[in-house]
């Protein structure tokens, strides 16, 4: 199974950190490998402590289901096909800020989760982080 390398995980964190600085926010940034294990993590100076766990859960959620966490959130609303899924797997996060990471061939090799601001900004930073992986 293809897996994210340390260099790629660092590139994701660096790209996410740069985007967070660009939009003037402080984030917790977590990268997990193909098996959903923590590979890299950064808590930017001043980022919320409560968002450490959220960032990691967003990354794992995105990898478990190979889709952005916001997409899962749309499916987990009352009446949705994944209603209450956030209670599985030791707790998932089903709002934006988690994004799968793909290698150059399009294979998912891990995921990034970001937390520390609005979910819209979390998603922007996570997407930038995922795009930073080559």
Flag low-confidence runs. Answer: none
Number of distinct helices? 4
Overall body shape: globular
Distance between the first and last residues' Cα: 17 Å
Q: Under the CATH scheme, which class? A: Alpha Beta
Strand content: 15-25%
Q: Label the structural class.
A: alpha+beta
The CATH architecture designation is 2-Layer Sandwich
User: What's the total count of β strands?
Assistant: 4
Mean pLDDT: 95
Helix content: 25-40%
Main beta-sheet annotation? 4 strands, antiparallel
**CATH superfamily grouping:** Haem-degrading domain
Task: Summarize the helices and strands and which ones pair or pack.
Layout (H helix, E strand, L loop, with lengths): L5 H17 L5 E6 L4 E6 L7 H15 L3 H7 L22 E5 L5 E8 L3 H13 L3
Antiparallel strand pairs: 1-2, 1-4, 3-4
Helix pairs in contact: 1-4
Describe this structure in words.
The chain is of the alpha+beta class. The chain has a single domain, classed as Beta-Lactamase. It has four helices and four strands. The chain has helices at 6-22, 51-65, 69-75, 119-131, and strands at 28-33, 38-43, 98-102, 108-115. It has a four-stranded antiparallel β-sheet. A hairpin with a 4-residue loop joins strand 1 (28-33) and strand 2 (38-43). The model has no long low-confidence stretch (mean pLDDT 95).
Quick structural summary:
The protein is α+β, with helices and mostly antiparallel strands and 134 residues long. Helix content is 39%, strand content 19%.
